[in-house]
Amino acid sequence: MWVLFASLNPISEGIRSVFIKKATKDFDSFIISWANNFLPVIVFTPLLFFIKLKFNSLFWIGLGGSSLLNVAANILYMRSISKGDISSVMPMQSFAPIFLLLSSPFLLGEFPNLMGLIGILTGFVGSYLLNLDLTKNSLLDPLKSLVKDKGTRYMLIVAFLWSISANFDKIAIQNSSTWQYMACTNILIFSVITILVLATGRSKINLAAVDKKYLFIISAFTVGSYIFHMTALSLTLAAYVVAMKRMSGVISVFLGNIFLKEANLKQRLLGSFVMLLGVLLIVFS
Questions:
Q1: Distance of alpha carbon 139 from alpha carbon 106, whole angstroms
Q2: DSSP class of residue 111?
Q3: Helix (H, G, I), strand (E, B) or coil at 234
Q4: Higher per-residue confidence, 133 vs 241
Q5: What's the pLDDT at 248?
Q6: Per-residue confidence (pLDDT) for residue 179, from 0 to 100
Q7: pTM of the full predicted structure?
Q8: Residue 57, Cβ neighbours under 10 Å: how many?
Q9: Separation CA 38–CA 25 (nearest Å)
Q10: Is 201 exposed, middle or buried (0-12, 13-18, 19+ CB in 10 A)?
Q11: Among 162, 169, 214, which residue's Cα sits nearest to residue 38?
Q12: pLDDT per residue over 73-124, tens digit each?
């Protein structure tokens, strides 16, 4: 079952990315981040009254660690996009599964078998190629830009934060339940981002925007993404789930070409194929 949920997660995130891109025409990226967790709070919070709650020190460590890391990752992600070229910034996300191979053995005592390890590394190569425009950049350009480009460095930090937060997600789930953790982490993340939105003076939302419905759609797909991601984490290794999550890039490429008329589809098919091969190796491991 973990394969099903880990596969549905990137589909949901891939579709969501299309609406995020559309929403950026009318809304500040910080407001989009705030709206992202709006519906999850409304949907998941009432569940706390209908499920058996379990609280211990490991749950609070997992909840606090993941939520605060994800708030920081959100801010750095937005700053990375604003300061760096997409072709240099986005490949840095593919390092998250690699970082997980280093963090999971210490935090969870998890490490994939040989075929799973090869699958993760293959997926990393595919994700890197997928987000790289070879007509404008060489294979090493994103790595070279780490020296001179703040945006690229920010995104590498985001990948590192995600690799740590996924472990904390699993720790919290193992010491409570999937539904309890999803409700609590969304309450905490939403509360912190709300405070930051108010503190930075970004609380004025363009209510006259024609495409404000995209904020609702983005938030709705986030609900699905949380369910799929957290359920998959409760069933298998965190490194496998995060590696398969990068498949959202493949889906975004095809949806971007269909709905946003983005170019370079043929070039990105190579990265998509390599990523798919990596996912198959993980599944059959």
A1: 32
A2: -
A3: coil
A4: 241
A5: 59
A6: 92
A7: 0.78
A8: 8
A9: 20
A10: exposed
A11: 214
A12: 877 877 776 665 555 566 677 677 777 777 888 777 767 778 878 877 887 7
Sorted by where each begins, the domain ranges of the chain are 2-284
Q: How far is CA 98 from the centre of its chain?
A: 15
Residue owning tokens 């995020």: 20
Q: Which amino acid is at 87?
A: S
- The total of other beta-carbon atoms located within 10 Å of residue 48's CB is 13
Sign of the alpha-carbon torsion through 84, 90, 94, 96: positive
Task: Give the pair of three-digit tokens for residue 132.
Answer: 């790289």
Residue 28: φ, ψ to 5°: -65, 140
Kindly give, in sequence order, each residue whose CB lies less than 8 Å from that of residue 185, ignoring residues fewer than 6 positions away: 63, 66, 67, 70, 169, 172
Euclidean distance between CA atoms 61 and 74, whole angstroms? 20
**89-109 burial by CB neighbour count: b if 16+ within 10 A, else e?**
bbbbbbbbbbbbbebbeebbe
